[in-house]
């Protein structure tokens, strides 16, 4: 399917979709599309006022949209646990968990639990959130965990097990690369663990180059180049298509990775794409999983 779009999304009536960071950018576009196709969509967001505004915009476009709000701060494991408890109380089943929220290239800072902000938010927060909700997905045929990675998983990227929190030195690009590589290692290891259950699958996606709020922390060299590169970037609606396809296309298989099919995976319609050799390293996958369980104190039912 050369040009998969939101028009190809099957009817989502009766399905429950939880999307992190759904008040803006890729997450908002994902929520908008799923709500328009009949899903009950939960916007899991840090800022409730922005979340309420997003719901107003969604219902303005789709008056019949079934949309709810859940407070979630991925920089706080206490908040992650509280959000998961509430969602478990509200929903007997979850069909789609879309780990979309993220931060990119911030100055050196930490989460409320002392983790480096990018690793703590993009990976550890989602690792804990997924683990705490997984038993709501496991009984549901066709359920999926979709985690959003990035082209950045290839750029100066490795898992620095000797300094995961960048306490000895900090490079914002390398730290982002570590976090986005972690998203893929997590997806592939989760899929290996889910394979024997036969219901839930784990899939990854990336938006290519997209104009979203993530760009606000660009390093000075990148900020200088951005006006030149901006024309090759696509808008958030296009950038959201890979994660929407990963979430809804009936042909999707566990462990696949979706991204734009155009120039260097920076733009275009979504298709299956490849990821780095490091992302497929089973030893890295297992080691990161073990460390993540230790750091978050969340263990999985698979």
TrEMBL record:
<comment type="similarity">
    <text>Belongs to the short-chain dehydrogenases/reductases (SDR) family.</text>
</comment>
<dbReference type="InterPro" id="IPR002347">
    <property type="entry name" value="SDR_fam"/>
</dbReference>
<protein>
    <submittedName>
        <fullName>Short-chain dehydrogenase</fullName>
    </submittedName>
</protein>
<keyword id="KW-0560">Oxidoreductase</keyword>
<dbReference type="Pfam" id="PF00106">
    <property type="entry name" value="adh_short"/>
</dbReference>
<dbReference type="GO" id="GO:0016491">
    <property type="term" value="F:oxidoreductase activity"/>
</dbReference>
<dbReference type="InterPro" id="IPR036291">
    <property type="entry name" value="NAD(P)-bd_dom_sf"/>
</dbReference>
């Amino acid at each position: 399917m050369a040009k998969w779009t939101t028009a190809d999304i099957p009817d989502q009536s009766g399905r429950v979709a939880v999307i992190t960071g759904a008040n803006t950018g890729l997450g908002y576009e994902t929520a908008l599309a799923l709500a328009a196709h009949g899903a009950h969509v939960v916007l899991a967001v840090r800022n409730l006022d922005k979340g309420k505004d997003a719901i107003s915009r969604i219902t303005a476009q789709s008056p019949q949209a079934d949309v709810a709000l859940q407070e979630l701060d991925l920089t706080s494991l206490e908040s992650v646990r509280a959000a998961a408890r509430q969602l478990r109380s509200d929903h007997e089943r979850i069909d789609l968990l879309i780990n979309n929220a993220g931060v990119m290239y911030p100055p050196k800072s930490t989460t409320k639990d002392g983790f480096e902000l990018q690793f703590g938010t993009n990976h550890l927060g989602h690792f804990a959130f997924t683990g705490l909700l997984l038993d709501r997905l496991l009984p549901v045929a066709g359920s999926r965990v979709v985690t959003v990675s990035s082209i950045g998983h290839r750029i100066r990227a490795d898992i620095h097990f000797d300094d995961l929190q960048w306490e000895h030195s900090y490079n914002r690009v390398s730290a982002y690369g570590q976090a986005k590589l972690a998203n893929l290692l997590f997806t592939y290891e989760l899929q290996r663990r889910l394979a024997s259950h036969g219901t839930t699958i784990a899939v990854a996606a990336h938006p290519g180059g997209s104009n979203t709020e993530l760009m606000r922390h660009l390093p000075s060299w990148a900020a200088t180049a951005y006006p030149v590169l901006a024309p090759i970037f696509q808008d958030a609606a296009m950038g959201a298509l890979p994660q929407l396809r990963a979430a809804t296309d009936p042909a999707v298989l566990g462990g696949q990775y979706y991204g734009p099919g155009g120039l260097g995976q920076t733009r275009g319609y979504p298709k299956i794409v490849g990821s780095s050799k490091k992302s497929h390293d089973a030893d890295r996958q297992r080691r990161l999983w073990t460390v993540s369980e230790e750091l978050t104190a969340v263990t999985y039912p698979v």
